Amino acid sequence: MRPLAGDPLRRARSGRRLAGAKLKYTDMNSKYALPKDGGLIVDSAPSDIIRRYEKIPASVFEHESEGVGYVADLIVRAIKKHNEYSLSNEIFEDVQPFVLGLTTGRTPLGLYHELVRRYRDGMVSFSNVAVYSLDEFYPIGADEPQSRNYRIHEEFLNHIDILPENIHIPDGTVPESRISRYCESYDRAINHIDLMIIGVGEQGQLGFNEPGSYEKSRTRLVQLSHDSRKIQSSAFSGIDDTPKMAITMGIDTIMRADKIVLMAWGEEKADVIRKVVEGQITDQVPATALQEHHNIEVVIDENAAGKLTREVAPWLVGPCEWTPKFTRKAVIWLCGVVGKPILKLTHSDYIENSLGELLEAKGPYDKINIDVFNDLQHTITGWPGGKPNADDSTRPVPSKPFPKKVLIFSPHPDDDVISMGGTFIRLVDHGHDVHVAYETSGDFAVNDDVVLQQLDTVRELGFADRFDEVKRLIAGKVKGQPEPRELLEIKAAIRRAEAKAADRSFGLDPSHVHFLNLPFYETGGLKKAPLSQRDIDIIVKLLREIEPDQIYAAGDLADPHGTHRTCMEAVLGALEVAKDDAWLKNCHLWLYRGAWLEWDLGMVDMAVPLSPDELIKKRHAIYRHVSQKDIVPFPGSDSREFWQRAEERTQNTARLYDKLGMAEYQAIEVFVKMF
C-alpha cells in the first residue's frame, strides 16, 4: 500500500478510474501518468533508506501539479514566517523584505500560476517580498516577448501585489561598455537570498552557467553555447535571431541562498537529474555543484526521476511489490547487467545483484526465467488489431470484433507515421476500419521558404500567382509577434496535404482522415493557450462518431507544457467525458512514443515486428512530409531526419528483444496499454 501524497516521498495514487481501468484523469490541470504495476513499497522503509543513493534529497511527485503545490507551500510558509518574525520583534517599521530568487524558462510556469492563484485567494501577499531573477538574454529589451523580463512579468509579477521597487531583473539593454560594472552591481545587490527557486538545463546548466563554469563565478555576461542557442531558438523563430550572449547569476551567487529548491519536470530532464542527484561533482555539469549546499532539495515529477536508482532499480533501495510486469522489469535489468539472455540467468546472477528478495517471492530462478521469457514473448504480435478465429488467451489484442474500428490520434500531422507507421500500415492492410485524427495543424513548424517553394510551383503550373503577395506577407512579419493568420493558413494547408499523401501511400480511405485543429494550439505563436473545454468537446464529438474498439495516442512523458502532453491530456479529458458510453466498455487505449525515445521493455504490452519491406513503406510515408525534411524550423538537438530517428529507434528495440533471447526481427514498434 502507498498512502496519498503528504510526505513528499510518497507518490499520490488519487484519481478516478475510467471503465475499471488504471487511467487517472481528474481535471484539465492534471498531468497524466502511466498505470503503476508493482514497485518500491515506499511506506515500509525510512526516508534515508529510500534516498541512500542520493547526494541531494529528492522529493518525487506523481505529477508536476503536485510538485508545484509542494514548492508553493514552501514559499508561502517561508514568506509568512519571515513576516511573523519581523512583527514579533517589532521591527516592522524597518523590516527587510523576504528575498526570493526565481528561475525563468518553462520549468516554473506551473509554480507561477499556482502562486498567483494563492495570492488571488488571499493566502499570501507579496507586498514584503523582493524578487531577484536568475538571468536574461543579451542584448534584449524588456518589452520583447522572448525576454526573461517580459515572461516573468507576463506569467507572474503582473498578477501579484509586489512593489515595483522590489523587482530586480537583469537589464538586457545595458551598453556593452558598462555591462561588467552593471553585473558587479547586480551581484552586490544580492547580498542574501532567503529562498532560491531554480531549474536545470539538459546539460546541467544553472541559469546560463554553461558546462565548464567556475564554481566561484558571480553574476556576469556569458557567451551562450551553440547547443543552448539551439534549444532557445524556438522562442526566436530560428537560431539566427537567437542572442549569442546572456547575463546570469553565477554559481557562487546562487550558492549564497539560505535554501535552494531545484525543480524539474518531464522525461527529458531524467538524465541530468540523475547526474545532479547521484553523480560526481564536475564543472561539465554545473548543477552538480549544488551537492555542496547545506540546505537544498530537488523537487521533481516521476518522469524526471525516471533514471534515479530508486526508479531504475528499486530492489537496490528497499522492499518491493513483485507483480508480473515489475518482475519482468527486474529480470530485463539483470540481463543488461550480466550480459545474458533471460533463459541463461543463474541463481548466482540474482543473488549477486541484489535480487534475492525476488527469488524468495517468485523463485526458484529457473521458474522466474521461464515466466518472464513467456511473458515477454507474448507481447509480440503481427496482428495489432487481433488475429481472427485465433486463440487469443496469450495475445495482447483480442480476436473479436474483427475487423475493428481503430482511431489513431497524432499530435502533429506526422507523428502517426514517424512513431507507429508500421503498425498503422499493418492495421490498414488487415482490413480494419482505421481513422486518423491530427490534433493540431502543425502550421508553426513550416519554414517560410517551403511556403514560397510551394507557391512558386503553383505559379509555374499556371494555377495561380500569389508568390509576390505572400513574399511581402513574410517580409512584414514582426519578430516575437504571432504570424499573420493568412500565412498560417497556407502552412496548415501544406501540412494537411502532406498528411493526406502519407495516408494515401498505404491505402487509407481519405474520408477517414480528420483534422481537428484543436484551439489550444492555434495561437499563431510559440506560446500556446491552456487546454480548454473547447478542445475536449472536439475530441468527444469524434469519439462518439466513430465509437472505436482501439485508440492509439502519443503517450510521451516529456515537457509537461509541450504539445504532445497537452494532446494526451485532451484525449484523456474526452474519454473522461465519455466514460459512461457503452462503446467505451470494450475499447482499449494504446500508447506509442515519439521520435526520440522508446518505452522500456519492462513496460511494454504489445510489440509489433516490422519486415524490411514494411520498414521501407513506413519510410516512404514519412518522406511525404516534405516540409519537415532538412529545414525544420525547430529541429531540437538531434540533427537526423525523422525517418532516421524512427528507424534507429525501432531497430534498436528489435536488437534488445534479440539479446533477451527472442526471435530476431528487422524492427519492432512497441506500445503500452493504458486500459
Automatic annotation (TrEMBL):
GO biological process: carbohydrate metabolic process; N-acetylglucosamine metabolic process
Annotated coiled-coil segments of the chain: none
GO terms for MF: glucosamine-6-phosphate deaminase activity
Domain called Glucosamine/galactosamine-6-phosphate isomerase: residue spans: 90-294
Name of the protein in its database record: Putative glucosamine-6-phosphate deaminase-like protein
Protein source organism: Alistipes communis
